[in-house]
């Protein structure tokens, strides 16, 4: 059964997936925190902290600082322990993570807040259906378009396959992989509950670009 929090989304979700190594200028934790604050100010709904190489103590500090920004829901990649210790909104699991079914079972046994999100990345209809069956709160599906960060996961699926997946499962499907302000609308029209992006948000590195990003996010929020 789907998780209790997998309800219809009132407006499209915009999620910033972090990658400090892809920052244009300084690739430091401090610069990453600055970008998270800028993303929150621009109106993103979720921030997924995806810094796989950070030691637990340093990662915990980053997540706590992000959680302190009350305007966003913070999701932590893989590290369930860090997510819970920092008071994050959820954990996001990839193909090499602990099986979603086990994480969901443990969380729903009273070991995490009732509204704690367990998200799963998938790259096929079968993967999305498996995530739903496991009780995941939502799933990422992609890559939708060509993007450097998703090359290992094969060729882009495109919006037609996105529409097929979104129609086939009841949990929210978040489009990822090359999604930006120019193509977000067709992802939402295809049935996506929202978008997740790295470059769209991290490349907005100066005041003018930040203003453009804010307007782009506001436009995406109005799509539903």
Helix count, DSSP H or I runs of 4 or more residues: 9
**Structural class given helices, strands, pairing?**
alpha/beta
Mean pLDDT, all residues: 91
Distance between the termini: 26 Å
Instruction: Please state the overall shape, judged from the principal axes of the Cα atoms.
Output: globular
The portion of residues assigned to helices is 40-55%
Number of strands: 8
Helix and strand pattern: EHEHEHEHEHEHEHEHH
Major sheet summary line? 8 strands, parallel, barrel
Rg on CA atoms, Å: 16 Å
Strand fraction equals: 15-25%
Residue windows where pLDDT falls under 50 for at least 5 positions: 1-8
Lateral arrangement of strands in the main beta sheet: 1-2-3-4-5-6-7-8
Oligomer: single chain
In brief, what are we looking at here?
By secondary structure, the protein is an alpha/beta fold. 40% of the residues lie in helices and 16% in strands. Strands 1-2-3-4-5-6-7-8 form an eight-stranded parallel beta barrel, surrounded by seven helices.
């Amino acid at each position: 059964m789907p998780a209790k929090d997998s309800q219809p989304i009132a407006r499209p979700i915009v999620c910033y997936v972090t990658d400090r190594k892809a920052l244009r200028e300084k690739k430091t934790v401090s610069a990453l925190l600055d970008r998270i604050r800028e993303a929150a100010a621009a109106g993103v709904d979720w921030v997924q902290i995806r810094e796989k190489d950070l030691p637990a103590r340093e990662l915990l500090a980053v997540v706590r600082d992000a959680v302190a920004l009350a305007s966003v829901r913070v999701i932590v990649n893989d590290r369930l322990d860090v997510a819970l210790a920092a008071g994050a909104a959820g954990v996001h699991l990839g193909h090499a993570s602990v099986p979603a079914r086990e994480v969901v079972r443990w969380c729903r046994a009273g070991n995490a807040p009732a509204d704690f999100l367990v998200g799963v990345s998938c790259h096929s209809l079968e993967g999305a259906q498996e995530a739903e069956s496991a009780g995941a709160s939502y799933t990422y599906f992609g890559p939708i378009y060509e993007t450097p960060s998703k090359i290992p996961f094969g060729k882009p699926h495109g919006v037609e396959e996105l529409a097929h997946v979104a129609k086939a499962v009841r949990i929210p499907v978040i489009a990822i992989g090359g999604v930006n302000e120019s193509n977000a609308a067709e992802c939402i029209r295809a049935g996506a509950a929202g978008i997740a992006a790295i470059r769209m948000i991290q490349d907005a590195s100066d005041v003018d670009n930040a203003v453009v990003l804010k307007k782009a996010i506001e436009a995406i929020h109005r799509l539903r």
